Amino acid sequence: MNHTAGFSRRSFLQNAAAAATLPAWFLEAERAQAVQPPANSPNEKPNIALVGCGGMGTADISLAAKFGNVVALCDLDESHSGKLAKTYPNAKIYHDFRKLLERNDVQVILNCTPDHWHTLVNLACVKAGKDVYSEKPLTLTIDEGKRVVAAVRDTKRILQTGSQQRSDRRFRLACELVRNGRLGKLTQVTTIIPSGLRGGPFKTAPVPPGLDWDFWQGQTPSIAYVPERCHFSFRYWYTYSGGTMTDWGAHHNDIALWGMGMEASGPSTIEGRALVEPIPGGYTAASEYEVHYTYANGVQHTCMSTPINGPTGRVLRPAKPGELPNGIKFEGPEGWIFVTRGKIEASRPEILSDPLTSKSVSLYVSNDHMGNFFDCVRSRKAPIAEAAIGHRSVSVCHLGVLAIRLGRKLNWDPVKEQFVNDKEADSHLSREMRKPWSYEGLGV
Fold first, then answer.
1. Residues 400-433: pLDDT tens digits?
2. DSSP-assigned beta bridge partners for residue 332
3. Given CA atoms 376, 361, 335, 302 in this order, what sign does their dihedral have?
4. Mean pLDDT for all residues in the chain
């Protein structure tokens, strides 16, 4: 499938700047493959609701507002929804997302909640007949991903995973070259991910006014409020997320699978280790780590943290000889390609500049991730990062997290999506949910 996405002036200028650094043959091929997106008349603009009004929610709603009408804002922290209401004064404020889903005039939901809420909100949304743009990582566990994929299929709703690197020309160019044999038979993929936060011990504190801490914890065990567990730094606690492995890893490992042509599959073996131990009483997700995957096609994949980049991706120091910064490196007998946000390079210039003469693999074209989602809401075609893709990408991350935590080699069956003769490992494919914040309690 090949689709172009809707463009705003800002995204047009950004993509024009990016295009100026890419080979002409690639851009010409893109134009030849592109199809006209559906018309976007003012009368067809959907009504949009945002669930989760923090940093990502604020960013995503600003992008989505170009394609629809913002009519509702929902958050468990009144300070977040109140602040955003100043930008969208006509939007109604909600505390409980379930009340929001009762509105028949809302067609699109942006799910920008913390990771441990993604699945329950997504399931409730598609069951209520809403299309969803869900932030990554798509799920907290592999079992959750299987449920989301099944629900999206059964309800025929559109769900776009917020893995926006799939809508970046540089990443698509790298994957298309690799999949068409530019490097020869692919042998090695390395995904380099920023190191996470390592801190603690942390103290409990009174719950801030306006924050519903019990609701925020949702399916996870109820504990006393700790400021570092909430909002931005929630992702460094295994209870709610998986550290930078499931944060940045959901981006870079997604591109690794795309380049390998394995986005409907996964690895066969996984081995991982933490390079430093968490501080007792502090963040519980591994901050520095190295994971090795093998695939049935013989490709070796290493996912490793780097101290060059901070958790947000910001460069902290120059790379030393032999070090790789945040990004993805593909290697084969004919050379290598390294791609990251804002840059693509290769071991030889002609790897990028020489056109593909017999291109057998043409990848999905999207240059605007949010625009692609809204195009698909209108056309009902699958978006570039549909639920099945988001699930498989974060499954690689979850497998890495489990290998680190269990401290031993794991054998995985990507078809059955379970471990091979390993009941202990299988027990980690799902987590016990605190009632009433469970599938049964929420009726999903």
1. 999 999 999 999 999 999 999 999 999 999 999 9
2. 335
3. positive
4. 94
Taking the CA atoms of 272, 276, 277 and 282 in sequence, report the sign of the dihedral they define: negative
Mean pLDDT computed over 344-370: 95
Query: Which CA distances in Å does 369 have to 99, 130, 132, 263, 380?
Result: 28, 19, 13, 18, 16
Q: Which two tokens stand for residue 315?
A: 């460069």
Q: Which residues of 216-242 are buried (b: 16+ CB within 10 A; e: fewer)?
A: bbbbbeeeebbebbbeebbbbbbbbbb
Q: Which two tokens stand for residue 317?
A: 């120091």
CA atoms within 13 A on the CB side of 427: 4
Cβ pair 385, 162 in contact under 8 A: yes
Cα(68)–Cα(109) distance, rounded to whole angstroms?
11
Nearest to 112 by CA among 168, 59, 167: 59
- Is residue 189 helix, strand or coil? strand
CB 153 within 8 A of CB 213: no
Quick one: how far is CA 374 from the chain centroid?
Answer: 18
Residue 289, pLDDT above cutoff 60: yes
- For residue 415 the two structure tokens come to 């078809």
The packing angle between helices 169-179 and 9-19, to 10°, is 40
Give the strand pairing for 131-134 and 108-111: parallel
The structure's pTM equals 0.94
SS (H, E, C) 122-171: HHHHHHCCCEEEECCCCCCCHHHHHHHHHHHHHHCCCEEECCHHHHCHHH
Task: Assign 49 to helix, strand or coil.
Answer: strand
CB 286 within 8 A of CB 243: yes
- CB distance 182 to 349 below 8 Å: no
Share of the chain residues as helix, strand and coil, in percent rounded to the nearest 5: 35, 15, 45
Taking the CB of residue 350, how many other CB atoms lie within 10 A of it?
A: 10
The closest alpha carbon to 146, from 266, 254, 33, belongs to 266
Give the residue carrying structure tokens 């669930």. 51
The DSSP bridge partners found for residue 49 are 72, 109
**Residue type, position 199, single letter:** G
Specify the length of the chain in residues.
Answer: 444
H/E element holding 74?
Answer: strand 69-74
Token pair for 359: 């291109």
Tokens of 418: 């379970």
In tens, the pLDDT along 91-138 reads: 999 999 999 999 999 999 999 999 999 999 999 999 999 999 999 999
